[in-house]
Amino acid sequence: MASTLYTVEHARRLARSRLPRMMFDYIDGGSGDERLYAENTRAFEKIELMPRVLTNVADRDLSSHILGMETGLPFGIAPMGMCAISTPGADSIMAREAAKRRIPLGVSTAASATLESIIEQADGYAWFQLYADPAVEFVDELVGRAEASGYRVLVLTVDVPISSFRIRDLQSGFGFPMKWGLRQLFDLACHPRWSLATLAHSLSHGMPQPMNYATSSQGISFVRGSSRARADWDFLHRLRDRWPHKLVVKGVQAPEDAVRIKAAGADALYVSNHGARQMNAAPPAMTSIAPVRAAIGNDMPLIVDGGVRSGEHVIKAIASGADFVMIGRSAMFGLGAAGATGLADILDSFAREASSVMGLAGKTKIGDIDTSCLAVAHGYSAGD
Ligand SMILES: Cc1cc2nc3c(=O)[nH]c(=O)nc-3n(C[C@H](O)[C@H](O)[C@H](O)COP(=O)(O)O)c2cc1C
Asked: For position 384, what pLDDT does the model report?
């Protein structure tokens, strides 16, 4: 029997051995020399929490709420395109976990299942993530489909106006549409377990592809790297007018942008550097929480992702000023390592550790965690 995955690093190692190298590198990789990839997680090491004592913390509650949703945990799964390359049926697996744990699942424009099927399986625990694709009618159709199928949170991702320089993908030849050559076929042949499982699933469900495109009436295809530069301020204003429910803007780090997005009527700010996949020269996402929080004040929800690899990280992000945390690769590595069980193990481990860390910080509820939990608030200097 496979052993339980307690750490993301364990899951990552297993995923690395099971997935064809080009698939693993697409998931794992960052942009440029991947400095930011490491820094996103390293930033957590510099945050220290103050242990508090002589408080009864026997009963702890990890439930939280965000954008009108009561959640079972203070974290959800970030939107990711083409999750089916981690394991067949990944979107369904994530949707079922979202429903079971009452956590939001980000559903990417480039998801490998339709947005309708995912929200149904997630029992409503899903947010739709929109890219400003160059095809105007397609975007319009997606927003309409999202509303009709019951989405009440729309996440506009704004940090991909152009594609970034991802060296691992350039080296492996990974892309959409995929160009199959000898090198790629050899990669598949070296990972027969993944290849056969994907092939078997494809016979009944079709080949993994961005299903919101495949089911569009606009007859357009997903081309990775196509410009999404249409997501300008006018686009945001129009989207705000068009979408009557909660609107989140994802991929923000500059306090000036945050202030302007708040003024444009967004309901929440999502601090993110796209998991270090876009601007490699950006600051780690965690270090952006405090300045963005200071800029937008306390009356606007702040969501964050980037480098979160444990339950401890979740609590540290909340103590730094975030209201809610999303996890990206941690979920993908769990899926890639052991499918549904792998994802469940990672989510279980995050929850167990978050509960323990919260208690050791002297708190029993997520809502009680704030900057007073940080060691620096008690006269300690920030670790470096
Ligand atoms: C394989 C992969 C695909 C992604 N696809 C999308 C996407 O389609 N839309 C989006 O807004 N963000 C996407 N992201 C970024 C994630 O939403 C999130 O910001 C990032 O993964 C968080 O960093 P972490 O992976 O270190 O947790 C993707 C990330 C990964 C790893």
From this structure: 53
